[in-house]
Amino acid sequence: MKIVEQIPDYIRTLIPYEPGRPIEEVEREYGVSNSIKLASNENPLGPSPKALAAIREKLEQLHLYPDGDCFYLKRGMAQKLGVAPENLIFGNGSNEIIELAVRTFMRPGDDAVMAEQAFVVYPLVVQAVGGNIKAVPLRNYTHDLIAIGDAVTRQTRVVFLANPNNPTGTIYRRDEWERFLGKVPPDLLLIVDEAYFEYVQDPAYPDSLRYHAADRAILTLRTFSKLYGLAGLRIGYGVGSKELIDMMQRVRQPFNVNAAAQWAALAALDDIDHVKRSLEVNRQGIEYLQAEFIRLGLQFVSSDANFILVRVGKGQAVFKQLLRQGVIVRPMEGYRFPEHVRVTVGTMEENRKFVDALQRVIRTL
User: What do you get for the CA distance between the two ends of the chain, in Å?
Assistant: First the structure.
């Protein structure tokens, strides 16, 4: 029997992650120019200037292997968060931290509970290790923590919670979270994905770091890809107890975070001005886009992140027509929102270009 014929069904039936369309490909295919990409929730202001300066300063060191323990970045982040360095693990984006956690704490046949329409990587990683996926429907586009708690059984090893949730941009609040913690057993691993937490302004938002305790297994995930504008360098991190992190470090491969990413992330931590500008651009963009959707009579999900899920009718058709005008958004059919697209908040110029293009498209469909 050929080696590929021996692959288990849980690998054969995996549907690979479908990345967004890059600007160069769209412009080549459709013969357009000056395109904008509002599909991957990137920072429209670009990377932190301090991060760029740090990379330029050390370019001549690229022949050396990176720091395998992220020593300086780990200590800088530990000081910023008020945790010990031993509570931190860094990865090639927070995606790698998700995979490390699942490979460390799940076995074939174990269950993982998650929202049905949350980050697509959660079920991909669980299925890849032979785990069982228990997906709980959203309630009003938001994590239903009561139903997620009810779905937990003795076979459950991991629960995924995204706050804010991608692709809806919604959050669950402190009272719901605390009731949930009182309901689920403490020996579960709660993976709380807070990739967009910096954008949240709601005072009832529960920062999961404040709930880390010796008797509760919580792994908080965060990233430099969004607010800090370092998506191209792929660097994220997890925060957990020393025991959790120690086990994951045994699975982590050496040199998993490249040197440029470490230099840039450490410098970006201190770039307060860039953070403030980025948050203000996002706030203004959210207000503008939501007001325009109301004017156009389009339903949308009120967002606490840097993107908005908007109902446009024929989502895939709208996506393709927008491509012809040099505007890249994200179709949501893969998330079982076939009537929606997800649009990243851009600069005001980009936001206006998107709205103008969308207005023309919906008039023709």
Answer: 51
